[in-house]
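seq as requested:
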Amino acid sequence: MRIFLSFAAIVAAAASLYAADTPPLAILEETGQPTVVETGKLLTLQDSSRKNTERTPAGALAAQVARRGVLYEWVPSADQTRITGGADLVDAFLSPDETLLVLLENVGGKTGPNSTRILCWNLLNNQLVAAFTVPERKLATALPIPGSTRIVAIQQPQEELEQPAALLVIDLKDGTIVQESKAFLEEARSIAVTPTQTFVAVKGDDNIRILRHHDFAGEPGILRTLAPTPRLQLSPGGSTLLIYGEDRAELLSTPDGPGVPELTSTVELSNGFQPVSALLSNDKGDSLILADASGKAILFANGLARPLTERFTGAATCRVTDQKLFLGTDPNEAISFYQLPNETTPTATVSPASLRPRNRGRVFRLFALTGSGSGEPNLILVDHLANIYRLSVLPRRWQKEMIFTAP
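C-alpha cells:
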C-alpha cells in the first residue's frame, strides 16, 4: 500500500508541472479532511513566442495583468445543476478601461467543497492572458477596484473548510488574496465598489456596510436605508449609488474618497414589486431599469414607470455615450435593443445564437463597449457554455466574431 501511495504522489507531482493552480483532486484518506475535486481543466504552457500584450498599450489593465510567455488551455467545468448542460460559470465583468474581460468559474461540482478559477481575456488581441485558481474559496459576485489590478469578490461560506461568509480582495497580477474582511453572519447579497471603498448588502441585515480599502479587515461603517432586503448598483462613472429593494429605490451621491454617500432622491416602486437586478444608464440616475425574478423589467425615467419586457433573462447593458440599451430576452435567447430614454418598444430584437458562427448558448453576461463612440455599438457576450464573442450591432444584420470557443 505504501508503494502504491508513493507512486501516486509522484504522478500527482508530475501533473502539477502542467496544471495551473489546480485544487486537490481527492479526499485525504488518512485524515478524512475534505478536499476539492478538480472539475474542468486549466493547463499552463511556457511558450516564449506567446505575446499576450500584443497590440496592448503598457498602461492598459490587460497589459498589467497579462503573463508574458504563457499559453493557457482551458476546459470549463460542467454545470451539474442544468439539465441542458453548460459551463459552471459564477460571474463575469468588464474592466473599467474595457481592455480586460474576467470570468469566474466554480470548481468542485454541485456538492462541493469548491475552489474558484479566475480567467482574464485581453480584448485587444482576443487572448486568454492570465488564469489561476483561488484554492478552497467559493466565490460569487466579483467587481474591479477602479485604478488598480485588484478585484473584490463575495466569498460564500464553506463549513467543511472552515471558510466563513466574507469579502476578499484578490490581485489579478498573481492571483493572491491580499485582503479579507471580517466574517459576516450571513452571505453578502450584493456589493458596489469604488476606488476607495466597497459597499456591502448582507443577507439578514437591512443596513449597508462600508468597507474602506485602506482598512478592509477593520470595523465597517454603516449606511442606513429604508429599502427592505436591499441590493446595490453603481452608475457607470461611479458617482451615483443605487440602493433598491421591495417597493423602494434610493439614489445617493458617492464621495470622491472615503465617506458616507448622501441621499439625493427616492423612487417609489409599485406595490409588491421586488427587483433583483438593476441598471443605471448614466451618472445622473434619471434613467433606471429594474427587473424582478419573474423577468418583468421596468424603465423609470422622466418621473414615469414604463414596462420594457415581461421576459427579461437577467443580462443587460447600456452604452453610456448615446443611451443605447440592450436587454437579454426570451424566447430564443434574444437581445432587444432600445433607445433611451423614450423607447419602450425595442428597435430591434436579434438572437445571437442564430448568427454565424451558430451556437446554442444562452446569454450569460452582456457588456457594451463605449470605445465605439457614436458609431455602431459593439457588444461583448458570454454565453452559458463559456463561449465569448463580439457583436457588431449593424442596421441590417448584426455580425458575430468569436473570441473564445469552449471545448
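Residues 1-26 have pLDDT under 50 and may be disordered.
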